[in-house]
């Protein structure tokens, strides 16, 4: 015998019953209205975490101005606190995507550590998502569609109705008689998802009555396949996660040699896994840039520019630089008090260790042609010293140089390559994003 909807939900919610709080994304539509009613009903007989509702107001259509008051009325009748969050949707090519990003950003802001946010997507939504992403040419991760749970801020986003068809939600709403909002935009077939819902799926289900459940099941299979690909990626990345020769340079990096030993497909799989938390990934056509970076000459310093930063190759190593990396000032900075660290705008902190120096002192950045006195070696060209050190090119422009007048007094030494100055002092640089410094 098939379990009732409320019994099915109770079983699904079992892993989350010890959470500090439950939030529900409450649009006022059918799905979230049913989910809210189910949760309130469960709370009458079960000990559950505190429940509150969150309504995100996008302000994209006039009809939406009445929805917050409707949601407040529903929540008041059920005894559930409601938060109404107003967001700004950034204009762009896809209004649907921009609204979704604004909505989930708002959800992330209200979800505390260990807390759970529930959304009302159901099995029909899962099937629509799969077909929509297939038509866009998504890979396995994309067509695996919506996971039943995923991290969100310090907590989790959970979709407890993913295995429930919409028709069951409609039946429950009629049985209890619930009132919900019908979004006028849901009937507009100019939006891709609405076109699938109103034009494509009726034709599919007329020919194949089990089309929705079959597509949802396919999404589950693909999700399992993606899990296996993630396991393989973690194995491959473990081999490439070798210590950096510059441990003070705390940016994500990988050794290239272990990746070269893999097939092209496994290289892409490992890099997708590594880059996913760092940047939006390119489509298949743009992965040719990875081959260009990988196969460039050894003395080259190739760069692969991605949506949220750059992947550099230097010293047979891959380095990820976020878009914010270049946001620092290379203006000259005076250092009037050597006893205190010098804050470098956008570039961390510089300390003078050991004996004090006669001033006035300044910190400048490379212009080219700099020469420095190296104990035991005489005057040496700074560029040549940096080449000997193997310091990645993207760091060299940020390397703080200590001057007195026009005399270059010192540079933070690189990985022990240069001797400590004989005068008994040294520079210690802690770049902005680093856990450790460079002396």
TrEMBL record:
Q: Which family does it belong to?
A: Belongs to the tRNA(Ile)-lysidine synthase family.
Name of the encoding gene: tilS
- Under which name does UniProt file this protein? tRNA(Ile)-lysidine synthase
Record's function text? Ligates lysine onto the cytidine present at position 34 of the AUA codon-specific tRNA(Ile) that contains the anticodon CAU, in an ATP-dependent manner. Cytidine is converted to lysidine, thus changing the amino acid specificity of the tRNA from methionine to isoleucine.
Q: What is known of its domains?
A: The N-terminal region contains the highly conserved SGGXDS motif, predicted to be a P-loop motif involved in ATP binding.
Among the Pfam families in the record, one is TilS
User: What's the EC number here?
Assistant: 6.3.4.19
Q: Which InterPro entries match?
A: Lysidine-tRNA-synth_C, Rossmann-like_a/b/a_fold, TilS/TtcA_N, tRNA_Ile_lys_synt, tRNA_Ile_lys_synt_N, tRNA_Ile_lys_synt_subst-bd
Q: Major location, coarse class?
A: cytoplasm
What does the UniProt entry say about where the protein is found? Cytoplasm
């Amino acid at each position: 015998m098939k379990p009732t909807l409320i019994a099915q939900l109770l079983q699904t919610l079992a892993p989350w019953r010890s959470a500090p709080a439950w939030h529900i994304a409450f649009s006022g539509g059918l799905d979230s209205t049913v989910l809210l009613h189910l949760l309130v009903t469960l709370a009458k007989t079960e000990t559950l975490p505190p429940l509150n509702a969150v309504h995100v107001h996008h302000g994209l259509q006039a009809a939406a101005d009445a929805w917050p008051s409707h949601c407040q009325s529903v929540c008041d009748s059920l005894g559930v606190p409601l938060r109404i969050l107003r967001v700004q949707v950034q204009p762009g090519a896809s209004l649907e995507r921009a609204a979704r990003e604004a909505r989930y950003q708002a959800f992330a802001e209200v979800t505390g550590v260990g807390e759970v946010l529930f959304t009302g997507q159901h099995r029909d939504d899962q099937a629509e998502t799969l077909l929509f992403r297939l038509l866009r040419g998504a890979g396995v991760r994309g067509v695996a569609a919506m996971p039943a749970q995923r991290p969100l801020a310090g907590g989790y986003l959970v979709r407890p109705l993913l295995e429930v068809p919409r028709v069951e939600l409609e039946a429950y709403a009629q049985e209890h008689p619930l009132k919900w909002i019908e979004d006028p935009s849901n009937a507009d077939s100019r939006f891709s998802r609405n076109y699938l819902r109103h034009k494509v799926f009726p034709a599919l289900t007329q020919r194949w009555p089990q089309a929705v459940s079959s597509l949802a099941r396919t999404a589950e299979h693909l999700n399992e396949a993606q899990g296996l690909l993630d396991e393989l990626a973690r194995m491959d990345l473990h081999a490439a996660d070798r210590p950096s020769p510059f441990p003070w340079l705390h940016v994500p990096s990988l050794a290239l040699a272990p990746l070269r030993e893999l097939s092209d497909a496994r290289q892409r799989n490992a890099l997708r896994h590594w880059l996913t938390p760092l940047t939006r990934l390119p489509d298949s056509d743009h992965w040719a840039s990875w081959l260009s970076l990988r196969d460039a000459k050894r003395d080259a310093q190739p760069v692969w520019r991605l949506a949220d930063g750059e992947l550099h190759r230097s010293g047979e190593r891959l380095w990820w630089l976020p878009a914010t990396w270049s946001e620092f000032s290379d203006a000259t900075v005076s250092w009037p008090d050597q006893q205190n660290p010098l804050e470098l705008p956008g570039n961390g902190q510089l300390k003078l260790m050991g004996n004090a120096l006669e001033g006035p002192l300044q910190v400048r950045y490379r212009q080219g042609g700099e020469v420095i006195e190296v104990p035991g070696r005489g005057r040496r060209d700074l560029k040549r010293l940096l080449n000997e050190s193997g310091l990645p090119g993207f760091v060299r422009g940020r390397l703080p140089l200590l001057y007195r007048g026009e005399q270059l007094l010192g540079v933070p030494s690189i990985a022990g390559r240069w001797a400590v100055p004989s005068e008994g002092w040294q520079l210690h640089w802690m770049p902005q994003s680093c856990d450790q410094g460079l002396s």
